[in-house]
């Protein structure tokens, strides 16, 4: 599929964070991460029935605001967390990608439900993207079809654990460049294209 | 008007061209493709079924495609179900756009899903499929290639693990031709 050519796992090295941000001592990092993990403005990408469960988690019974997750950000530019809940189609995939790109760093993605995890019941469809992680990097996957609101709360707690542990210096350090594989290694154990001998 | 009276009105107007098929309390009126626009105009102007509900198609494999049109008369509360056949070699049909403006999107969708060309449609381009999509996915000959790339990942029976029951015969994916006839193995 030529819609989204490459996945850029990390943004440009240390873009926007200075030496202090990258090299803060551990106690300060704990405080900074603690501040960030309880102020997650969430941008809901509600594409199908899972969005209803997301809305249920934001309402008074489950109430993820008590975890510091603030729903209904005014747009992707004000959000820290994107929850992709529902079936991503190939037609919709460029929009998901574009809105993800508009979010400011550091940003996190929760893939909510079987469809956005892997295609779910539409695993053989001609138009469904087989998992939103094909177009954007995902931090936490919440399984279920649809998952209950408690599952989303659990996923948010796992994400907060992850934010609490992370170091921005590591997050924005450029990934090591891997040497390109030779063509023979890429074609190993694969079927030949039609018409070739 | 009862469904029988609607069918009788079409037989009065189109004679032997209109074939009635009663089923489940509805009467489907089948007309030849040449009378397609005339039948829709007749239903709108003479019978008063002015509400265009939907237009779609289904695949009959060697017998071509059946295009179905559903109309409704809001004031007198009766349905009109019109159908026609187009051959699989040359699936063409005159557009209903001069009769019902709302048919435009339905014809575009039928065009991209079944590959039926609607003559006279001013903007017959894909509506729902992503750019660069090849093939017509609602044709029965359209192969769901994802099934070849990845088998159904879950259990097939309740209580069965994802690895399958012991001793189950390995089956090819449903709706996909034999690897000897279709796919990369076929041209070896």
Give a verbal description of the structure.
The complex is a heterodimer of chains A (197) and B (188). Chain A is built from 8 helices and 5 strands, in the order H-H-E-H-E-E-H-E-H-E-H-H-H. The mean pLDDT of chain A is 82. With 197 residues, chain A is an alpha/beta fold. In chain A, strands 2-1-3-4-5 form a 5-stranded parallel beta sheet. In chain A, helix 2 packs antiparallel against helix 6 (149-165) and helix 3 (50-58) packs across helix 6 (149-165). The longest helix of chain A has 17 residues, at 149-165. In chain A, helix 4 links the parallel strand 3 and strand 4 (108-112). In chain B, the strands form 2 sheets. Chain B has a 5-stranded mixed beta sheet with strand order 1-2-5-4-3. In chain B, helix 3 links the parallel strand 6 (92-94) and strand 7. In chain B, helix 1 crosses helix 2 (36-47). Chain B has 188 residues and is of the alpha/beta class. Chain B has helices at 3-14, 36-47, 103-114, 145-149; strands spanning 19-23, 26-30, 51-59, 65-73, 78-86, 92-94, 117-119. The model of chain B has no long low-confidence stretch (mean pLDDT 85). The chains are: A alpha/beta (197), B alpha/beta (188). Chain A binds chain B through residues 2-3, 89-91, 93, 118, 123-127, 130, 191-195, and chain B through 128-133, 135, 137, 142, 144, 146-147, 150, 152-153, 173, 184-188.
Brief descriptors of the model:
heterodimer, A: 197 residues, alpha/beta, five-stranded parallel beta sheet, globular, B: 188 residues, two-stranded parallel sheet, elongated
List the helices and strands and how they pair.
The complex is a heterodimer of chains A (197) and B (188).
Chain A lengths: L18 H4 L3 H12 L2 E7 L3 H9 L10 E2 L10 E5 L7 H10 L5 E5 L1 H5 L21 E3 L6 H17 L2 H4 L11 H4 L11
Helix pairs in contact in A: 2-6, 3-6
Chain B lengths: L2 H12 L4 E5 L2 E5 L5 H12 L3 E9 L5 E9 L4 E9 L5 E3 L8 H12 L2 E3 L25 H5 L39
Parallel strand pairs in B: 2-5, 6-7
Antiparallel strand pairs in B: 1-2, 3-4, 4-5
Helix pairs in contact in B: 1-2
């Amino acid at each position: 599929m030529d819609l989204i050519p490459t996945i850029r796992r990390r943004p440009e090295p240390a873009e926007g964070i200075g030496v202090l941000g990258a090299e803060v001592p551990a106690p300060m990092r704990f405080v900074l991460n603690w501040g960030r993990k309880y102020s997650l403005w969430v941008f809901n990408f509600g594409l199908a029935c899972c969005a209803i469960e997301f809305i249920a988690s934001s309402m008074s019974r489950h109430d993820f605001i008590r975890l510091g997750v603030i729903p209904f950000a005014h747009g992707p530019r004000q959000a820290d967390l994107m929850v992709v809940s529902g079936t991503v189609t190939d037609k919709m995939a460029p929009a998901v990608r574009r809105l993800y790109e508009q979010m400011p760093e550091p940003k996190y993605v929760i893939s909510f439900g079987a469809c956005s995890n892997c295609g779910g019941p539409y695993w053989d469809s001609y138009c469904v993207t087989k998992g939103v992680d094909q177009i954007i990097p995902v931090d936490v996957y919440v399984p279920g079809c649809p998952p209950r609101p408690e599952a989303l709360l659990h996923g948010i707690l796992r994400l907060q654990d992850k934010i609490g542990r992370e170091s921005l210096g590591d997050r924005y350090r450029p990934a090591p460049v891997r040497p390109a594989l030779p063509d023979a290694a890429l074609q190993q154990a694969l079927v030949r294209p039609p018409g070739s001998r | 008007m009862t469904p029988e009276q609607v069918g009788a009105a079409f037989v009065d107007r189109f004679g032997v061209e209109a074939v009635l098929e009663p089923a489940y309390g509805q009467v489907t009126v089948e007309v030849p493709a040449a009378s397609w626009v005339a039948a829709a105009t007749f239903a709108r102007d003479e019978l008063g079924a002015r509400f265009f509900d939907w237009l779609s198609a289904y695949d009959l494999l060697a017998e071509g495609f059946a295009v179905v049109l559903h109309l409704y008369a809001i004031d007198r509360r009766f349905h009109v179900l019109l159908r026609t056949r187009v051959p699989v070699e040359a699936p063409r049909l005159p557009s209903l756009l001069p009769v019902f403006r709302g048919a435009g999107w339905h014809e575009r969708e039928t065009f991209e899903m079944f590959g039926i060309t609607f003559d006279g449609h001013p903007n017959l381009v894909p509506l729902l499929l992503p750019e660069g999509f090849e093939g017509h996915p609602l044709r029965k000959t359209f192969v769901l290639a994802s099934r070849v790339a990845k088998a159904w990942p879950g259990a097939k029976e309740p209580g069965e693990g994802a690895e399958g029951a012991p001793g189950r015969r390995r089956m090819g994916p449903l709706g996909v031709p034999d690897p000897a006839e279709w796919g990369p193995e076929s041209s070896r």
